Amino acid sequence: MKLQFKPSEQDALSSIVARRVHRPYVGGDWHFHKEFELIYFLKGHGMRIVGDHISNFQKGELVLVGEWLPHLWRNDERTTKDEVVDFIVVKFPKVLDGVDLFSLPELTHIKALLKESNRGLLFSGKIQALVHKSMLKLCKASSAQKLISFLGILQTLSKSQDHKTLSSPNFSIPKEVGGENRLHKVINYISANYAQNIYLEEIATVAAMTPPAFCRFFKTRTNKTFSLFLNEVRISKACQLLINGEAPIKQICYDVGFSSLTNFNRTFKNFKGTSPSSFRDGYSSFRRQNLELIS
Question: What does the pLDDT read at residue 293?
Fold first, then answer.
């Protein structure tokens, strides 16, 4: 798989594409497109990559991705066999049918929100709750009502600062697809093999580069070292397992590729600021709240 440019989705009856998707598995190619994308997960969990940010996503997550920003949501077929992913995706261009709607003075706050989304924005559960019903209605709305509902959602998002940016300021939107294809090949290999030891020589071979050249390439593209990125993937997967299951922490440690519990606990705390057990306990209320909201 490789980084792909996705052409615009056409809808003869609307400038905005809004649909609700049910499927057992989500995880195509890392891609980018000229539209903004607002995605809201009602069910499902897995890995999220936005620019150079990697973490885990859960049901209840609401993210706004800016135009041209590479992104990928992926779950694990091996651990989600009986789970259906349910999400709403909204795609919209900067210019709607030849009109730069967001240049109107009444929409100044929305314009600022869209500019900020060039790094990806993750909204809090509080904000997600405010737009939950509107997102559901948007998928079924038509004609002028769709546009009105859409602007209402963006207005709600733009009025709050209760969100965080995902990709780092140093991440550059790809202009040379060839190099990004190589990077995505490396990311795919890490995603498939994070539970095993991955040596520098091995991953450099995947990229068809010498180890020193690979280290420079990877640091330039992601602003992270390979070892740091690999640990991010492993900790991200551990978070997913801690939130969604009851497996012993020692088992999770080995399942995500760590060879010792001591190293796992230390690395987890470095990334999350807390221990694995405290992290799991902290998400117990989160799971109940989202279950109540979505049901």
Answer: 47
